[in-house]
Amino acid sequence: MRLLLINPNTSASMTEKAAIAARAVAASGTEIIAATSRMGPASIEGYYDGALAVPGLLSELRERRTTGYDGAIIACFDDTGLEAARALCDVPILGLCESAVATAGFLAQRFTVVTTLERSRVLIDNLIQRYGMGGRAKVRASDIAVLELEDAASGAIGKLRAEIERALEEDGAEAIVLGCAGMTDLARELQEIYGVPVIDGVAAAVKQAEALVSLGLSTSKRGSYASPLPKPFSGAMSNFAAKHVPTLT
Amino acid sequence: MRLLLINPNTSASMTEKAAIAARAVAASGTEIIAATSRMGPASIEGYYDGALAVPGLLSELRERRTTGYDGAIIACFDDTGLEAARALCDVPILGLCESAVATAGFLAQRFTVVTTLERSRVLIDNLIQRYGMGGRAKVRASDIAVLELEDAASGAIGKLRAEIERALEEDGAEAIVLGCAGMTDLARELQEIYGVPVIDGVAAAVKQAEALVSLGLSTSKRGSYASPLPKPFSGAMSNFAAKHVPTLT
Amino acid sequence: MRLLLINPNTSASMTEKAAIAARAVAASGTEIIAATSRMGPASIEGYYDGALAVPGLLSELRERRTTGYDGAIIACFDDTGLEAARALCDVPILGLCESAVATAGFLAQRFTVVTTLERSRVLIDNLIQRYGMGGRAKVRASDIAVLELEDAASGAIGKLRAEIERALEEDGAEAIVLGCAGMTDLARELQEIYGVPVIDGVAAAVKQAEALVSLGLSTSKRGSYASPLPKPFSGAMSNFAAKHVPTLT
Amino acid sequence: MRLLLINPNTSASMTEKAAIAARAVAASGTEIIAATSRMGPASIEGYYDGALAVPGLLSELRERRTTGYDGAIIACFDDTGLEAARALCDVPILGLCESAVATAGFLAQRFTVVTTLERSRVLIDNLIQRYGMGGRAKVRASDIAVLELEDAASGAIGKLRAEIERALEEDGAEAIVLGCAGMTDLARELQEIYGVPVIDGVAAAVKQAEALVSLGLSTSKRGSYASPLPKPFSGAMSNFAAKHVPTLT
Amino acid sequence: MRLLLINPNTSASMTEKAAIAARAVAASGTEIIAATSRMGPASIEGYYDGALAVPGLLSELRERRTTGYDGAIIACFDDTGLEAARALCDVPILGLCESAVATAGFLAQRFTVVTTLERSRVLIDNLIQRYGMGGRAKVRASDIAVLELEDAASGAIGKLRAEIERALEEDGAEAIVLGCAGMTDLARELQEIYGVPVIDGVAAAVKQAEALVSLGLSTSKRGSYASPLPKPFSGAMSNFAAKHVPTLT
Amino acid sequence: MRLLLINPNTSASMTEKAAIAARAVAASGTEIIAATSRMGPASIEGYYDGALAVPGLLSELRERRTTGYDGAIIACFDDTGLEAARALCDVPILGLCESAVATAGFLAQRFTVVTTLERSRVLIDNLIQRYGMGGRAKVRASDIAVLELEDAASGAIGKLRAEIERALEEDGAEAIVLGCAGMTDLARELQEIYGVPVIDGVAAAVKQAEALVSLGLSTSKRGSYASPLPKPFSGAMSNFAAKHVPTLT
């Protein structure tokens, strides 16, 4: 099984970190193909960055179909471009937020997502409401810039831990979800410290992708994820007109 | 007051139709500046088209700031790129769906949105749930391709009318919202035929934009619509790195 | 365009304040006809006052139809008698709360309504849930009596500002809605102080009324706002039996 | 125990029918004091009628306190004036809709309310959403005018039965709630015919009132039902200014 | 009227306390038959205890049918086994939580349930969401073990009072629901201290059972509470195969 | 990895069918240990059967800990005893409904669960609301008794297919979830016939269990799934008093 792990931002160091996390949990027969978007922002912090990351993400999904993959993971907790990617491809596409909160739901009845900046808090809260977890999950921002997570001297981990502690105390959180792909290396350690499940979206998404592929399940092409209709595209998007990415057989 | 009416698809004929509708309802002091995206799909039918329309939309918003506008309307019923545009700009940004359902809410307690293709139905239903109208509004698809609305011989209007009649009979609809920018020229006539309010998103959005501008209100820059943070962008998106579009003063 | 601005309480000083606010934002062709109810409580604080204000409100709507108006605004943030007025009249009827929260929804994803007394807090929270903003808006009471807002020496403004500050800090509010018609003169100044949109219901309702009238839209007469059926009325209500208020033509 | 059963419309025949239903289920120590409003519409069909019925209702509640009652029932399925009455009085106040759906909730997980006119359908559906039963209950209109229920030759019962049959078949209803005070005499017979619980609001409200009174529980005076504040009232409402109706001791 | 009050835990002292509370509020013609489960845990604290209490509860319901009862109350605030009991029996079955929150809903628009241990908090919150009170009620744990309530020296009452005070201050609670059958003797006193309605589930359930029985209403046997189908049972459950408990006639 | 697959009903033929389905999708290193409850009903149809199946289920979970398992699956679509099992055990516990609807949520925005009897429809609908999928999923009953699925001549498959066709046509379903463990052998074939994802709960739960175990995640022991407190148990339940089932190390 070949899983494409696409980082929709253009920071190769974050791709590398996510790839390490993904390979650490992948089954023995799973190959993780890590890819970094070549078009868009260096990090995704809010709606503007997210929107401009999508064409680069879709481009990778389309171009890499020739070498083949059985499923793909969008390595950003904002689930950037998730619906568009599902419409484009036949193979299963997983987002980190959707995978992580579904996973948390099997382990705890109430949990808290701890993300980076305040500007992402409501964005993630909206995702969670849409995924049906609005009555079970809270979202907290810890005032960390995404790229600070790459810098051990930034104090980011201290801020993250303080916010987790507030979640346990004030929210009655039974589990913690790490709300940024850049936190993926911290999950194990934080789980040991706090004695509650700590869920990393990258790891969760790898297992969900493996599950769907091995079950022979793929994105529905009936209704809202129907394959794109053929039509002209203009300007820098003109090479996007081709049809959807079929399942390899 | 100058309002930018951006068609996020690249079909100039649809821009023209929307501009006519906008100018027909604009106040005497309002100038409608119609713009067609130069980058992206010829029509927006589903998530894939929508995602690829956003950079072209944001590009118009940025480039036209030098000539100035006081508010902008995204002329697609899917509210394509609405959050990203709000994060980018200080001036008010209106979407058709959000404007139309808020308007309908002042006139009726239960109403139905009639859109084009089945693939857009759930997308719009998700918007409506997010805008808080899930308990009051239903969405129906009438099996019309967006560009068929440009072709009088397509039978599109007959399909649309049949679906409106089902909404009145089966949903107990008290008003009808037309769920596609391409239907904007039909609202008046349908309202006369059926004797219930028929709301067109283009007209609704023009009035909401005028309202916000004249009240001196603008998009909040605190929280989820905070202005984009400066950061590097790569590839075809590299010219998007500049910061947000300030309010003209 | 003639808009009737009815204060459903009997305090002419509040009518005057609301009329000033309304005229300050009305379009050049809009005439604001201010009216004070002649029957009911001097201020509306809670359900009892609200219920007893409705006949006076409906009476004004009926009696003034001979001189004509194209739309009406009920100048109380509790949206007192809004549904009954919509059933009575063909012309658009706007409430302050409904108008203000719809307006806030175009500018911010999360916002807080700051009202006067604790007894009004749940009443407004119920309105907001019904208008579909329950997941996006909080309501706070600032422990001010409505008529204290008329008295500069009452300390009311200090209490209001303290509550706004708590909303920004504790709720993560991206915008503030002023939850009483008596606060209408404070919106501009508070917006400058806090740097977030501050929405006043009177101003919002004027623009919504102008929008609906200029779009040729009116209250649906199908379903829950159908015109009153002719029937006998007894006692002090016996002069209310006449049928609904038709749109002027 | 003395329970005041107030018919908020002015039709004495409906009061009589409701009183018979109330006395049929009242406990041996319960006295039902039937009262007909002397001010307002002859029947309540929609928001306009409802609003104009409230002062008459509140007037009865106030005037009859001298002779005393321990609880009161508002004998209209629209729960006309329920919050205002609760604010006015210390004693428990029950509405038919609230009582009936709470009762139905103990007997069935899904049920349908069958009411009279289409114009009341959404009004009742809004009540049900507010009472928290929106996910469990549907509302259907059977196209019967309220006063047709007083006329055996009107065909009203046939329409009502047809609608109940649709509720059982199409909604999977496990119980039926009769959505009009004028249907109170039909509950027993319909229950026998259809073999599912058929709940009448008058009977349900009597038992809820008895329950609250015998438990020594009364309306909370903290928060949204706090007693009216003393203030001037004008016009025909000027005699309403007095404070709330205290519990008899 | 004979009401079976079953304590689903095996602590006879708690049964006794609940029986005293039940008899204190029962109508003159109501006989309370108190029963203690003979199979299961000594107290119910969380899902595991609750699940293992159900067969003992169902067993009592079945065995006691020969001596007859007209309705039954499950004397645990977790509403342990409520749906299974309703499927088993024709007579009305009441739970404490469902009865108490329905009762509170007639008296207050916002209220707080104060329960014992943190492990029961989310369980009760889930019940409340399901009963439709999620938008109106909060749940708080006061860190009291159930059996501490039997021990005056445990400090349990002090903890309970502190939590009620937080509910009044921080939640804006208009009423308090006591969230454990073991608190039934405290309601009256706490109501006097705090001046808001304090609702005890045992008392509320007795009155609801009396109401349903006297109205001739019983659990719907159509749909989700249909009587058990005959089928083989194995092991210690083999004596449970008999069909449902019919209404006495 | 050793996964315990417990059939909570006592029909060994259904266990065998579920075990075949589980082994067909299990990863190469996963051992499926199939177990049939020895205590309770032969099939689970409604709340009564479900409640009486739980002690047998918990008994298996406890007794088999000596031979060890890393996770467990409760092989009934009603998620019978799921919370109690999670409180008992440290290892992950998966239910079929929760696993299947989470899986469907990755593939489709709207889907329909097709179950057996009408009496299970509302039960499953309640689960789905609680799992947050109420706005996305419908439930349909196909009027099949569970054990009919074991009998090729029963016509059960024809009924099931007819209901799936209604789901596609009337609900706009984008995917189908099979709502009974006894349908597990039909998923592949139905998926080929209808061209939409068809999700079987047994297969979905196996992959979710593998995912959680391989990620080192386990049920939270903080809050609502905290391990049972030590306490006396009486009667046939007296051997249940021991504490929770620890994770094997």
TrEMBL record, chains A, B, C, D, E, F:
User: Taxonomically, which superkingdom?
Assistant: Bacteria
Which Gene3D superfamilies does this UniProt record tie to the protein?
3.40.50.12500
Family of this protein: Belongs to the HyuE racemase family.
| Name this polypeptide is given | Aspartate/glutamate racemase family protein
